Amino acid sequence: MPKAKGKSRRHKYSYNLNRKRLYRSARRRAAPRIACSHIRQAWDPTKSVAQNLAEMGLAGDPNKAVPIPKKKLLGMEAESNGQEQGKQLVRKPYVLNEMEYEASLPEKKSNTLSRDLIDYVRYMIQNHGENYKEMARDEKNYYQDTPKQIKRKINVYKNFYPEEYKDFVASLKQEKMEVQ
């Protein structure tokens, strides 16, 4: 197999190029990447990262913001000195308030089960009740789940959809009553 056309040539090193200056200027131009929209809106590009965070009431280095005392020096005196040093002027408290409010909102449950798993579990419960050994021998058990695995899948279904499971079991009981 032939070589690529440009590979046979020797690459020349440019001794006159100042690579340190190029690297430094590229680093200086890069702005910090900010994930939180509240911080991004209140950010002042003319100030340093530490100054911006201090104005918002945030800490850049958690070790400096909340130091761990090595030894307690005379109890209360050490605590009062730490509190005086930690006080800073917060000019943009709304950023911190918005972030606290957003964090206090309840988290939405986004976990769902696949439709195939739901159908599988409902089929097994409908045909076998709570007999897991029979479920394991059923021909619809394509993946050859053991009785414990099937029980675990049914419990997952119960936890994800408790109301739906109760309605399903109630409808099964009604069907049994009608048959008898």
From TrEMBL:
Its main location: nucleus. It comes from the Eukaryota. It is found in: Nucleus, Nucleolus. It holds the Pfam family Nop16. Residues 1-21 are annotated as: Disordered. Signal peptide: none annotated. The keyword Nucleus applies. Keywords: Nucleus. This is Nucleolar protein 16. Belongs to the NOP16 family. GO terms for cellular component: nucleolus. The keyword Nucleus applies. InterPro entries: Ribosome_biogenesis_Nop16. It comes from Probosciger aterrimus. One of its GO terms (biological process) is ribosomal large subunit biogenesis.
